[in-house]
Amino acid sequence: MSIEVKIPQIGESVTEVTLASWMVADGDQVEEGDNLCEIESDKANMELPAEVSGVISIKAEEGSELKIGEVIATIAPGAGATKSAAKKEEASAPKPAQASSAPATGGDKNFPSPAPRKILDEKGASTDTVNGTGKDGRITKADAMSASSAPAKSADKAPAKEIQQAAPAGGAVRTVRREKMSRLRKTIASRLTEAKNSTAMLTTFNEVDMFEVMELRKRYKEEFQKKHDIGLGFMSFFTKACCLALQEVPGVNAQISGEELVYHDYCDVGVAVSTPRGLVVPVVRNAESLSMAQIESEIKRLALKGRDGKLTVDEMQGGTFTITNGGVFGSMLSTPILNIPQSAILGMHNIVERPVAHKGQVVIHPVMYLALSYDHRVVDGKESVTFLKTVKEMIEDPAKMLLGI
Question: What is the pLDDT of residue 224?
Fold first, then answer.
């Protein structure tokens, strides 16, 4: 009797997903635990493993929009043992030479399954240049993502279907490439539009002298690294400063729910992370109770999972406040958009040496501009300014922050 492969329950609010890619082909023999496909929801991406060993029969195509519980494949159990035995026989028997044009099969060494092959094709990379680290030498998705792209082809070799218009002079080629929006990108677009249209969003600014924090970091970063096995960055300072400011100005940590304001006595701080798939905001839980080292470790863990597309729905739900750092890309100033239903978001920017007044003298110090966007329905101007001023004071005098005064 065949076993049905269904779209699993991913999260409370997720009702539909997109079948992003199959990692096996129809008729492949799969082992229990092998990843069958990648599912894309509006919250996160996940890989769906096989529950039994057997031969898979695919029922849904890549790119399909599917409901939770919908059947996407069936597996006829019992073929896993046959597969294992066949592989042992293959290993002991000499393999005949194959033509280079032969189609790739599921378990052959250095042949990728459909998802990695798609990535390699987009990069123009050959399977011969990739060392497969998967089972029996199969090229995995991670192998494909880390593979080097082939040199760009000259314009005259561009596929005809991509050429839209030739420039009248110089022989230059103008191409247009269309890609279907991912579910994550569509959700980002929808949520940003909703935030813009449904909130009374306002932004207030301040500047912060980074001299003391940078001196403190310079003085102790090697000892910090040695003791905690994690680098000392600026995010832990700003996360800790925001937690203290949120406790002093609780309205910034509140949300609207119907006709009620919901105040939180904890700080679940979302940290915006840019990934190849788009912007995601994993959450550092109870950041107010974490040490600097714990904050740095958690941010690094979440950022790496975000980059690899491994974040779970739970890791991205329920934040009460968000920090975004456009400074890593060189942004001098911006007006960050709210991550609804939250009422505020702090924007960090690049650090630039500027002349500032310090102890009665004009000196050159590293300065960062800060921006706090907030929902004016929840947060008054006085609260927003007080919050930002508190963050500024904590960063400019980090001893006060670390001593909790």
Answer: 93
Active site residue 380: yes
CA 275 – CA 255 distance, rounded (Å): 27
pLDDT at 115: 63
Residue 170 lies inside a defined structural domain of this protein? no
Is-catalytic flag, 376? yes
Cα-based distances in Å from 343 to 110, 226, 320: 50, 38, 8
CATH classification of the domain holding 327: 3.30.559.10
Rounded-to-integer distance, Cα 390 and Cα 401, Å: 10
Please identify which of the residues 26, 121, 314, 380 carries the catalytic annotation.
Answer: 380
Confirm if 47 and 33 have CB atoms less than 8 A apart: no
Query: Are the beta carbons of 232 and 217 closer than 8 angstroms?
Result: yes
> Which residues, in sequence order, are bridge partners of residue 109?
none
Q: Is the peptide bond before 114 cis (omega within 30 degrees of 0)?
A: no
65 and 197 in a common domain? no
Over residues 376-403, the pLDDT tens digits come to: 999 999 999 999 999 999 999 998 888 7
Catalytic residue among 228, 365, 376, 397: 376
